[in-house]
Design a protein that fits this description.
This protein is of the alpha+beta class. The chain contains seven helices and seven strands; from the N terminus they run H-E-E-H-E-H-E-E-H-E-H-H-E-H. A hairpin with a 5-residue loop joins strand 4 and strand 5.
Length: 296
């Protein structure tokens, strides 16, 4: 083979090698830009928290999602029902038993129940219960028959809008999560890219758990209505009889506490001023000694 042919073969090989290197670098740059672009779109998509009532479009990955397509607004509104009753009754213990019977007959639950006894043998009680919303009015009517009604307060909180908003945001985040998983599987090639996607997935998972927790809390509040019953015997609201001996003991105890507090305060003040007094005494003694020396 002549030198000219050898030179041509070497030159052609170098040119082909340069072309191959250029193609490989271009493909890596394209893949990297595509990966970061998809990841940035996923972040922007996740960052938007539009309300379902808005017709603003949420775009991502060439597809168009609207709030109306993501979540269907429920026809039944979500209401949290609460009520509070104050009843004057003849016997708190019997009233507590009757409340439990009423709750059990409607398959409700007792959340809290207590009875407080005063020195004049009178009692005061409180029971917190939960029943199904459909039984709310019936149970309330039966509870009011247990005594003389002093107070009735019924409140309702409409959480429909909040629930729909949470549901829309959850759907959005789930769509973003699916897109990130696709990016992790198809686009992430380097360790840096994999770690970045996994970090976004972890942050997204926290957001999803927070929303799901709030939705479960609202479901529990909506699923059961809360009724608080305060009941008391007439003597429980009467003023306690004057007890001179008890008042005398309280006065003596209060006087001793005041004396101890004053004594403690005096000790603290003396302890705080003692270093200053010592230094002043040293300075004055030094001045007196110096004056006597000068006189001599």
């Amino acid at each position: 083979m002549s030198k000219k042919k050898t030179f041509l073969w070497i030159t052609g090989g170098i040119i082909l090698l340069l072309i191959a290197v250029f193609i490989i670098v271009s493909m890596r740059v394209y893949v990297a830009r595509s990966f970061h672009g998809r990841l940035r779109e996923s972040r922007d998509f996740m960052g938007r928290q539009e309300s379902p009532s808005m017709l603003k479009e949420i775009r991502g990955g060439g597809l168009t999602y609207t709030a109306e397509n993501i979540v269907n607004i429920p026809t039944v509104r979500k209401l949290i029902k609460r009520a509070e009753l104050n009843l004057e009754v003849k016997n708190c213990s019997e009233t507590s038993d009757k409340i439990i019977d009423i709750v059990n007959s409607f398959s409700g639950i007792i959340i809290d129940s207590e009875i407080q006894k005063f020195q004049n043998e009178a009692k005061k009680g409180k029971t917190v219960l939960k029943v199904l919303p459909k039984d709310f009015d019936t149970v309330l009517a039966k509870l009011k028959e247990l005594g003389k009604l002093d107070l009735e307060r019924v409140t309702g909180e409409d959480v429909t809008e909040e629930y729909v908003d949470l549901e829309a945001r959850l759907k959005n985040y789930q769509v973003v999560k699916e897109r990130l998983l696709v990016i992790l599987q198809d686009k992430a090639r380097t360790v840096k890219d994999i770690l970045e996607v996994e970090r976004e997935l972890a942050r997204l998972g926290q957001q999803i758990e927070t929303i799901q927790g709030r939705m479960k809390y609202l479901d529990r509040q909506v699923g059961l209505a809360t009724i608080t019953v305060n009941y008391y015997e007439p003597k429980a609201m009467a003023p306690e009889p004057l007890n001179i001996f008890k008042r005398f003991k309280e006065t003596i105890r209060l006087a001793i506490e005041v004396f101890i507090n004053v004594f403690n305060g005096t000790v603290v003040v003396i302890a705080a001023l003692l270093p200053i007094v010592i230094w002043l005494a040293i300075i004055i003694a030094g001045i007196i000694i110096i004056r006597k020396l000068f006189k001599k």
